[in-house]
Design brief:
With 138 residues, this protein is mainly alpha-helical. It has three helices and no strands. α1 packs antiparallel against α2, α1 runs parallel beside α3 and α2 runs antiparallel to α3. Its main location: membrane. Keywords: Coiled coil, Golgi apparatus, Membrane, Protein transport, Transmembrane, Transmembrane helix, Transport.
Length: 138
């Protein structure tokens, strides 16, 4: 069970890092969008960053609670019954899984937003070419 938890924690850390990198890339893309369209995407970026902060905080709390449990278990602290410990561990595992699902959903949204941004940049590039051709004709 411990190896599964370590693997899950490593997986969540990896996903958090990927999500942070995607947010940074998206932020750079938003800066390239024309000012008249930028507002909507800037507000989306702020909400994505807030959600990311919440996910990271949830993950950190879960890890702290889990490490406290492991330490108590290793030290033989029987202040809690094994049933309470088991329930607490299941609660932390559930919270970690919930955070993982939310992170995965956030990651999917980030990927979709990145795709939309890429399409917008391509459309803008095509529009620019059309404008330049029209200018040359005039």
């Amino acid at each position: 069970v411990s190896d599964d938890k370590k693997q899950m924690v490593a997986n969540v850390e990896k996903q958090l890092e990927e999500a942070r990198e995607l947010l940074e890339q998206m932020e750079l893309e938003v800066r390239e969008i024309p000012p008249q369209s930028r507002g909507m995407y800037s507000s989306r970026m702020r909400s994505y960053k807030q959600e990311m902060g919440k996910l990271e905080a949830d993950f950190k709390r879960s890890r702290i609670a889990y490490s406290d449990e492991v330490r108590n278990e290793l030290l033989g602290d029987d202040g809690n019954s094994s049933e309470n410990q088991r329930a607490h561990l299941l609660d932390n595992t559930e919270r970690l899984e919930r955070s993982s699902r939310r992170l995965e959903a956030g990651y999917q949204i980030a990927v979709e937003t990145e795709q939309i941004g890429q399409e917008m940049l391509e459309n803008l590039s095509h529009d620019r070419e059309k404008i330049q051709r029209a200018r040359e004709r005039v």
